[in-house]
Structure prediction request, 574 residues.
Amino acid sequence: MDTLETRELRYFVAVAEELHFGRAAERLGMAQPPLSRAIQQLERRLGVSLLERNRRGVSLTSAGEVLLHEGRAALDATTAAARRTRRAGGADSPGGPRNRLVLAVKAAGSHELLHKLLDAYAAEPDAAEIEVLPCGIGEQEGLLRDGRADVALMQAPFNSLAGFDSEELLTEGQIAILPARHPLAARKTLSLADVSDVPDLPLARWPCHGTYPPGPGPEIHDQTQLAQLIALGRTVAVIPDSARAWLWTEHTAVPLTDAPPVVTHIAWPAHSHSLALAGLVRTAAQL
Amino acid sequence: MDTLETRELRYFVAVAEELHFGRAAERLGMAQPPLSRAIQQLERRLGVSLLERNRRGVSLTSAGEVLLHEGRAALDATTAAARRTRRAGGADSPGGPRNRLVLAVKAAGSHELLHKLLDAYAAEPDAAEIEVLPCGIGEQEGLLRDGRADVALMQAPFNSLAGFDSEELLTEGQIAILPARHPLAARKTLSLADVSDVPDLPLARWPCHGTYPPGPGPEIHDQTQLAQLIALGRTVAVIPDSARAWLWTEHTAVPLTDAPPVVTHIAWPAHSHSLALAGLVRTAAQL
DNA sequence: GCCCTGTAATACCCGGTAGGTATCACTGAG
DNA sequence: CTCAGTGATACCTACCGGGTATTACAGGGC
Prediction:
């Protein structure tokens, strides 16, 4: 009568995302009628109508929107529970659990910092094994939430630290990376305004939540593509200072005077309390 | 094969808390054998042993500890999803959802601030209805996590803000509240050391996670009991400055020079994004 | 006007499994 | 050695989650 089953949440989230019972059922690997029935039961048990059955498809009520968001969070929490338990169990050798941490890092981001952190931590007396999980921009939050990672390096303001515990590690300015032969590359410094509306160098667009923001720039999804497009003179990038590490010869870096500073944090789920994690954070804070 | 059901989590948490299949089954309103079987299935599905069956009761393996903590969080998240959806659905009148927020406040804590906040917010053009939910010390976190509350007033360092978004509202010093006839009450200021080891005034003990810390002082669980014990000359309290509001005539307040400042925050679950909540936070930040 | 298409809901059936009862197996206390 | 108390096993039943076939309904094209 009162607690939701994860099965029901899974079903509802699928329907709410597809806004179509048939497609949702297919995605769930089941037939449509039982799915309809399950959602009806869910609505009856909650005493709330979640979906507006329009003549042509389905739309969410306000209560449905709430359940979509809260339900996603709950599903993430349960899969995190399963994953972390499995991992903890694999290390169930006697004489102390052999801990292991999964550290999510944006590919090629904060590379030098990461290197120093891993070296310093490895020198600790009872260091756990660190598995580095490279990921795309903005993926760290999801990885931490559903348990695929235990701790992450995040960069404000690109990543949102909301809901996580974190420790500040490094603050750096940002630079513009330009094609070496472009006129702007000769400048000593630039402002954001200088690079934001250069007709022949439109800012590249990263996918955000699976979709690309509108704009004239090329669509990219990793730093190598970006580097190549810059070298070809097609775009310009605004990127933290540490990116100097991977400059090509055809690139020129120019400091930006008014770009917001980028702060790299080490972040982890607020409720976690493993010794290995505490050690890693302590090491990181002393860098 | 891969996602945990809420039922399984509920069962495991019950067993892990009771460390006894019989009592856990009773608490769950079921018989013991199916519970045993369910836990065995859970262990098989996770491929991990969660409980050490000693022939006199049960103890947790390290993986079991992980699942206990992560599972509690997941259960909280699912009950929060159900509760918040029900509340959002009750307000499903046409012409815009009639929003309602539950604000958790430690009974008698930050009373003046709360009063100002409620007044200021009520004056807002599209103010939602605010239900004030008084609670005990340190209960706010749980209320926010399982959806019984949407937003809370918390006092660092008494409350832990980990895992929540928050906004700072008020910083205040702390005072010692002494029996008026006690010699120390004549002092202009005191230090923590002055009040921490007065033989005839042992510090009172609050229950922490359901159990009392050891010590000589009396066990209390609300502010009225504390006030009375102070008036009787049995104990001394170290409390934020705003507590002057409820001083008795037999009490004397003396400022503490070295007590950590108490910062009152307004805090809410990091992922929430309701308009009503945003309005309340904005109002609070402008106080 | 008609039919045809695509949608969700209903009717009905079946099998897996969650849960109950009775019992067993083991171990420590007296 | 027995007995009390624990969790595990055996077996049965009933519910319900899921499948297939079908209905009900709303638009769009002709």
Summary: Residues 62-90 of chain A form the longest helix (29 residues). The beta strands of chain A are 51-54, 57-60, 100-106, 129-135, 151-156, 164-172, 174-179, 237-240, 251-255, 262-269. Chain A touches chain B through 49 residues (CB under 8 Å). Residues 91-96 of chain A have pLDDT under 50 and may be disordered.
